[in-house]
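Sample entry as discussed:
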Amino acid sequence: MKIKLALLALLRHFPACCERIRRASRAVRPRSRLGVLQHAFVARFGRRRDLPRRAALSRWRGNDAVVLAIVAFLLSSLPARAEEAEKIVKIEVEGNTKTNDDTVLQIADVETGDRMSPSLGERIKTDLVTSGLFKEVRVETAPAPGGVKLIITAKDKHSWVIGPTFYNQPGNVGAGLGFAESNLNGENKKLLLYGQVATADSLFLAAYLNPSIQGSAFYWRIDTFHRRERVTEFSSPEEFLDQPEPDRISTMYYLNAGLLLGANLWRGMAFDTRLRGAYVFYRDPHWALKTKQESQGSPGAPQDDGWDVSSEFRLIRDKRANWYGITTGSLLLLSYERALPDLGSDVDWWIASGRLQYAIKYFKEHNLIWKLSAGIGNQLPFQQEFTSGGAPGLRGYTNRQFRGDTKVAFNMEYSVPFFKIGSFAFRGLAFWDSAFTTFTRDEGTIGRHYLLGQTDPKFNQWRNGVGAGFRVFVRSVVLPLVGVDYGCGVEAWDCHVYFALGLVEL
C-alpha cells in the first residue's frame, strides 16, 4: 500500500521536482547529484526554507523517502543532455594557418543555429581528424547571449610531401618519386603526381580532386594513368596444393584518362559516375620456359590492341573514421562498369562488384579490420580481368598469380601499438588473406587469346595467406611512411617478404 501511495505521490510531484532540480543545479554547484536532489526536495517539501538540509530531510517520512529514491533512480538513468543541447549562436575557428575557416566548417558540417551537445562535439572532432588535414583538434564551448559559442581549434598538418618510394614484392621490385598535396589552397583539394620504374610495373599517375564545387555537395575529379607492365600469366593448378608456374610473359602498355562527377547525397553517402578511355597494346609476347619457346615459337599476345572506353557508376556509403592510423566504422561500395562501343570501344564488356569493410577499435589503440569483396564480369578483355596474388589482397603469393572474370576475396587484420617516438607511431599486425579467382563466364571474348585450360573453372584456385608485419605512421604527415609484411601461402607452402616505403597500403 505504501508503494502505491508513493507512486501516486511521485506522479503528483514529479514535474515540480524536476523543475526544482533544474533550478537548484543552476543556482548552486553541489558536490554530487544527490546534493542537487536534496536541495530541490528541501525546497519542495520543507515547511521552512531556512532550515538546514539535514533538518528538512529528517522530517521526510514514508512516501516522501520512497519518492526521493525513485526520482534519484530515474534521473541517474537519464542522459543529462537536455540542458546541454543549447543553441549555437557563434562559431570561432582557431589554430588553422593554411586551411581557411569555410573549409574547416564545411568538413565539420556545423553552422549557427544547430543545437550543441556532447555527441555533436565528438562528431565534429572525428570528422576533422578523419579528413587527414589536422594534427590537433579541440572542440570547446563558451557561454554567449542566447546560447553558446562554439570554438573549434584545428591545427594544420604539413599538407604536402615530396618523397621517394620503394617497394619489394615477389615478382615486382621498383622505386618512384611522388608529390602529394592534400590541402591545395587551404580548400581540401587534392593533387597527386607520381611516377615509378619497376621490374614488372612502371607507371605514371596524375589526379586532381575538388571535393566540393563552389561549396556545394557536388565533387569532381580528373585523372590520367599510364602503365607499362610486364605481365606474367601462370598455368592453371591441377591440384589444390599445386603451385602455378609462369607460362606466358607479355608487355602491356595502358594509356588511360578519366573524368568523374559525383554528389554527396547525405552524410556518409555519395553517388558518382566516371567516363574513361584507354588505348591498350601489347609487345614482346613469349613463353616463360625457353624449351617451350624453342619448340613452339612465340605465342600470340593475350589481347588484341585497341581502344577500351567505359562508364562506371558507384554508390558509396562511407562511415569510417581514422584516428592517426586507427580506423573505425564501415564502408560499403557498389559498382557497375560497362564498355561503350558507341564511343569507340573495341571491346564490349561489363563488371558488377561490391566491397564491404568494417573496422573496430579495442583497448583504445587495438584495431580489427576485415574486408569482403566480390565481383563478376562478362567478356572481359585482358586488362580488365580480376587478379589475385601479392600485396595488397593475397600476401604469400607472387604478384598477380591468379586471374579470372569472377572473384571473391576476404581479408582480416588485427593491429596493436608497439611504441611511439615523437611523432612516429610503430604498430604491429597479424593478417589472413583469402581469395578465389577463376573464369566462370567464358563466352568467347572477342580479341582475347587464352592459354590452354586457362578458362576452366577450378575450385583449387581458392588460396589463403597468413602472416604478420608492422607499420610506421607519422602524425604530422597525411600518408603512412613504412610498411613491412611477412606472408606465407598456406597452399603453396611458400613465404615472401613485402616491403613498401612511402606507399599508402600493403
Summary: The mean pLDDT is 83.
